[in-house]
Specification:
Largest sheet: 6 strands, parallel
Strand content: 15-25%
Order of helices and strands: HHHHEHEHEHEEHE
Shape: elongated
């Protein structure tokens, strides 16, 4: 019993080795795979001290770092200019953009298709969806998570050229109230897909 006290000694976090700190960081900032949401809590870590900042930015893949862009997007350009060139995760729920700079920021992020790794759009305005549907015709080579839920049926089918008919890195796909009869063609390219959900399919979107 004389050694029990040693089990309760306080440990200064600064004395922990790098690999232990990275495990702690990963549990703090990792992506929530079930829902496909990304976290930007890593920004808290990099402001703590120089050592933590170095560990975070030298381990972007291990920590699955993302630059989270969500409305209001007035600071998107500042994020892109200030932070390293990390993968981008777009998170827009119940989004009704204002005409002007904020709309331009949204479009600018979507045009960085080579960096967009996640898109979560839910219950947006008709104009937002129409613009998004046009921009999503191009390839998104690093896209891993895609969640589209409009909360009201879209009768016009998604174009056959959606994602340029290729999504080689896609792992999570959720479609809700969206007509997409050409979905099987896209799925032929999704060799890494692990989760697929397609709900409330409009009559024009049934797959035969």
């Amino acid at each position: 019993m004389s050694g029990i006290g040693q089990l309760h000694q306080w440990v200064i976090i600064g004395s922990l080795p790098d690999d232990v700190l990275l495990k702690i960081f990963k549990s703090f900032v990792d992506v929530t795979e079930i829902h496909g949401f990304a976290s930007d809590e890593w920004r808290t870590l990099v402001h703590e001290c120089r050592r933590w900042r170095y560990l975070v930015f030298t381990s972007p893949r291990h920590l699955n770092l993302h630059l989270l862009c969500r409305p209001p997007m007035r600071s998107v350009k500042e994020k892109l200019d200030f932070w390293p060139e990390l993968p981008i995760y777009i998170h827009a729920i119940s989004y009704r953009w204002q005409v002007g700079e904020e709309r331009g920021d949204f479009l600018a992020v979507l045009r960085l298709n080579h960096r967009v790794s996640g898109i979560h759009i839910e219950n947006t305005s008709d104009s937002t969806w129409e613009t998004f549907a046009q921009l999503i015709q191009q390839p998104f080579p690093v896209l891993t998570h895609l969640w589209l839920w409009l909360c009201y049926p879209i009768m016009n089918p998604i174009s056959r050229s959606f994602l340029a008919e290729s999504a080689p890195c896609l792992q999570f796909l959720h479609l809700d109230s969206i007509s997409f009869p050409a979905l099987p063609n896209l799925l032929m390219s999704t060799t890494d897909l692990v989760r697929l959900s397609y709900n409330d399919i409009p009559s024009s979107g049934y797959i035969l």
